[in-house]
Amino acid sequence: MCGRFASFTDAQDLADELAVAEIADDARLLGPRWNVAPTDSVRIVVERPRREPLPDGGTTAGEITRSLQVARWGLVPSWAKDPGIGARMINARRETLLEKSAFAKPLGVRRCLVPADGYYEWRRLEAPPGTRRTPKQAYWIRPAEGEVAAFAGLYEFWRDPTRADDDPDRWLVSTTVITTAAADGLERIHDRMPVALPRQAWDAWLDPSVDAEHASALLENPSAPMHTRPIGPRVGNVRFDDEGLIAPDPEPRDPEPVLL
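Above: the chain's sequence. Below: its structure in token form.
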């Protein structure tokens, strides 16, 4: 699974990299993060019709525009009774997207990219003789070419029934990161990895006219090569959020570090 990642690239640089036309104010103001955890606010890239004003004060759907928005990490289905369920839906398995009611509809109509500079994973090591506690080695995993990773994601809108119709916070936007079986050596660290879509798949993945079946096929393409490095254990504590988290571990616990 992908339970922690980092997103510290500047919003405008992300917009340039991902061909984003508009940056929402809250997305521009969201600061750099080296330890993004479930239920945190994250930036997502979506394509939706621009809302155009009408003379009577209302709005209508305009041109489809690619924009950088903010969502809460952990998808909250539209039918959920409360948003707490989102903490258990930070990831969606590629193999069962169409089987899960929470993910099947968004796969067809609400797909997004979740930009990340990299993610964290923990490798289980052999327990020392005479102990039961399994030690783990933390790893920082990022695109080998140093570019921003575009994780395949889904997003959803949830209406808070306790808020008034004119309350601007009545709608919660949430997102999930799609994962698949780990490959290209990453399976030595963990059996799952986030789907990092290649650049040539971005347009089709975001295109709202592409149906769920064709979108699902895009997830079968191999991800770009990843670079790995063992890092210190501080990343396991959400209180730590600084660039030192991705520094190499000078004395890794892993007796045979996975170096890709």
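The chain has one domain: 5-133+148-225.
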